[in-house]
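tool_call: predict_structure(chain=1)
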Amino acid sequence: MNKPTIHRHTPNSRTGRSMISPGKAYDPSAISPEVREWNAKVEQTKREKLQRKLSKTPNQPRDPVHYHEGKWWFWDETWAGAEGPYDSEAQARDGMDAYCKMLDGPIIDCNESCPIP
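tool_result:
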């Protein structure tokens, strides 16, 4: 099946793709059944490709403690920042345990006892 075109052709549509200008009114009922069918097939293909990719990925939890540039580190709770460095893996794990306890600890109200004026 050839890819159907949508709406109108413009000078910018080199390969017959239709363009919808930003800010223009868009009527979903104007989309032909062929275009809807094409879009559904494209979305289904994307979903199947993602499913294949995810099925190949091992579903094992990742270890936040890691070795990098000669030192041991652990990822924070968002996996966005590394905490460390530590000289050994055991020290990094102890640091991670202390960090987790700090996160689970009591909430400090800075309005009552904040050292910053």
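agent: The chain is about 40% helix and 10% strand. Proceeding to next step.
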